Amino acid sequence: MTIRCRFAPSPTGQLHVGGARTALFNLLYVRNKGGKMVLRLEDTDVARSSKESEEAICSDLQWLGLDWDEGPNVGGPGAPYRQSQRLGLYRENVDALLKSGGAYYAWESSDELNAMREAAQGSVQGFRYSRQEYSDEQLAQYRDEGRTPVVRCSASPGDIVFVDEVLGEITIPASDLDDFIILKGDGYPTYHMAVVVDDHHMGVTHVLRAQEHLKNTARHLRIYDLLGWEPPKHGHMPLIFSMEGGKMSKRDKAKVARAAARANGHNPESLALLTGLPEDLLVRFMKKKDHGIDTAVAIANKLGVELPEIDVRDFRESGYLPEALVNFLSLLGWSPGGDREIMGWQETVDAFSLDRIVKTAAKFDREKLRWLNGVKLRELSVDELIERVVNYVEQWGGNLKGVDVSIVGPLISLYRERGQTLRELDDAVAWVFTAPTEYGPAKAIKKHILKGDSLERLSKIGAILGSLSEWSEVSVETALTAFTENECEGKMGKVAQPVRIALTGSPVSPSIYPTIVSLSQAEVVGRISACVQYFTDSSHN
Fold first, then answer.
1. Measuring CA to CA, which of 61, 145, 332, 506 is 20 to 30 A from 41?
2. pTM, whole model, 2 decimals?
3. Which residues pair with 103 in a beta bridge?
4. In the predicted model, is pLDDT for residue 539 greater than 70?
5. Residue 291, Cα to own-chain centre: how many angstroms?
6. Closest by Cα among 400, 455, 405 to 430
7. Smallest Cα–Cα separation from 460: which of 528, 511, 358?
């Protein structure tokens, strides 16, 4: 039997990192078993689905290196791979369920359903829809009102029991299940109907998805049973939690933006003036009735707040490497055994098995991801790293965008041992292009600039560097070594730290000599002079 797995995102937004983990585990299993990977787009939510979202999801998957053997723009025996192009097939199977008595038309309006829910609030079981009986007069009235019925599938009369590939034997009690909608009033199938029909007709052998789908699996097994189809095997993977313990959600961005707005004393009225967004939208947002990503981003941009990375696009924009994110995600809920953490693609494929997927929630440790990304950065050759940085700033912008590669190369080489992400590497060289206007931290300024004759010594260093006839690391090192021996008892820190602060605004930089010659001689002399002048002014000391 050829193993066939699928990843079936809804193109209604960006690709969540949890969805990427689902796609990854499916692909790892398929590649380990020599099977086939299917990409299917579940775009039956007409109001929210978009071509832009579809393209973004496919782009993120390709960036991660998560390819597919069948799907949109590839083709395959299960085509078409967009659910919106398969409506006839769904209707055919809904009709089969109606004919067999496994499904029926339900005519309740939204108001009537809400009334049922309210009436059930006091009960122990809560609201469970069960089939209603309609008289001929009621049906005639509903048709006269222009109502369009939905189609509901009858719930299983007994418990649903199945063996999960990850969790073992699972029982979903019949009391937890009710008659569920499989065809909406607009003629589109619900997720439950479409996914079963598609998995069956595309020959999917294993459905691997998150544990939050357990109850959905019970519904889907009911449809398989009513249609007389053999169900695929199911495996439910652990959820991904933040280090604080909550489920990683796109709402986390809204939470951070709200906190920042409150901390800065803003209300919906002032936020409307700040962002240009409608005040009524911001009222809903601040009251947690709306969690719009665009609203959160607009607020964060105006307040200078970093939002947490949640979607794959966020990690791309933050400068993570795809191989680092894939390596990290592979360890979220799966263990290769031993102490292995830094793994390449083929090593991960060879080691992957369903019996090593854990049952408990995985913690998304951002610091571990940063560390792992730094390791992967330093595994790249200098030329590879330069190419990654150039491509990154071309797409996302940065200090190095448009800068000649001959300049980029030496700068990146300076910082490759320090930076953890491509963005950090780009941020680290900002001082090369913009002279500092402030200096810090205060403790370092007091020690290296304001203490004793440090300013006078810095002024002398500027004069020495300005007098050099040759501008190179060798000539700079020779001159400063001699000055250190003569003026500072051979203590290079008394020379290097003040110069670092003058050139970069900070006491932290790579080796002092390449740092100095990263700038022109005139720029170095000018920055040292400006620093001396800044601290000579009594208001800065």
1. 332
2. 0.91
3. 153
4. no
5. 17
6. 400
7. 528
